[in-house]
Amino acid sequence: MKHPLRLALGLIPALLLCGAVLAQQALTPAQAELRALYQELVEINTTDSVGSCTRAVEAMAVHLKSAGYTDADLQILAPPGKPQKGNLVLRLKGNGSKRPLLMVAHVDVVEARREDWTRDPFKLVEEDGYFYARGASDNKSNAAVYVANMMAFKRERWVPNRDLILALTCDEEVIPSNYNGVEFLLKHHRPLIDAELAFDEGGGGSLDSQGRPDFQGLKVAEKIYQTFEMVATDRGGHSSVPRRDNPIFDVAEGLSRLAAYPWPVTLTPATRAYYEGMARIAKGPEAADYQGVLKEPMDPGALARLQKIDYQRAMLSNTCGVTMINGGHAQNALPQRVVVTVNCRILPGQKVAEVQATLQKLMGDQVKVKPAHEAVEAPASPIRADLLAAFTEVNAELFPGVPVLITMSVATQDARFLNKAGIWTYGLSGSFRNSSGTHGLNERMRAAALYEGYAFVGKLVRRMQ
Description:
Keywords: Hydrolase, Metal-binding, Protease, Signal, Zinc. The chain has helices spanning 12-24, 29-42, 53-66, 140-155, 181-188, 190-193, 247-260, 269-281, 284-294, 300-307, 310-316, 352-363, 385-398, 415-420, 447-463, and strands spanning 74-77, 87-92, 98-106, 125-127, 130-132, 162-169, 197-200, 204-207, 213-222, 224-233, 237-238, 319-327, 333-334, 337-346, 368-371, 404-409, 424-427, 444-446. It is α+β, with helices and mostly antiparallel strands. Helix 1 crosses helix 15 (447-463), helix 3 (53-66) runs parallel beside helix 4 and helix 4 packs across helix 15 (447-463). It is globular. The two termini are 38 Å apart.
């Protein structure tokens, strides 16, 4: 379903076109510096298999020190026995009249095989207004934007009302991980990153199919990540004498019930705010559908239409997707063990144990459902009035006529650790990325989005100082 924003159409495309021209032609000195450090960061391999987050954050430390930060302002910390999993923490001292603001960006990336990509995934390529590379969008763009802004603040000798903390972290892309950077810092170095509020990824602007802005998103919630294993076992035997009590049959029947199961629909404070915003900016039948799910009770027709859209279904309810299956041990033997992996994304405020109980009921008595790891059940962030006001003001300055929406991420980011620790965290990018290939092939991001994000974050941090 499209988001048919039609406000200020004469102005907005011109703004975005101007950004695209900037990305390809003359950059300001600050933008050129940003692009250079972004390229350096992207071209350092930070995959879990062969990469090094430490190399990446050490490279960023060189840039930060060139702007005037000292060793006393900056630390690089790695978990014991994992020197490649380094995390950088930087502090710009304020006058202390307010509690700190933390900016978090992970520098690790998902695996990428050169033979599968059109271009080398670890070389930044700019073509037709896009940056291509692994991590181009997720999440080395945010990391570069934060580094460049912290350099600018230092050079200006700015003393904000609160300390500004930057954390460049590792292992966000590995769930579960014993070396997640945010979790490690909270557990072992909490005073270094303790803050009143934090910014991370998961928010950002949306473009329609014509490249026009729909809205600018501020993320206040994300779904809970939990993987389950469905295990069925049997005594096996010779395949020439098959039996009905086959664990593959048991699993298949349960998965058929799971595929047909209508997960209950729930509006959280974040998704209610999202649909209220969409009802304001949409037109015609789409607006009516958004309004319909806000009714008490919900309009069943509106709900049915929205649930046909994968993204909207994920916003409205829990989801559980089958991701892997492993069974049997020989082509001429009945299976003795079958394991199916199901990855669930659970609405904040709901319990993992209740989802597990539902899955167990669906799979039946012959299949054992068990968690593959311990979930991080974290609350959503409150919708903070001063942040929303500052965010809206900055957006109006940079993108006149584009509305601001509260959003929930249907994926999972590091905010789960921070929110659980009481550091309310908000996802934003301040840019219209129109990215694709994230976690997949040929990841790309609008080149202009890098410079949009730099301007937006710089203004927002100043508003929140």
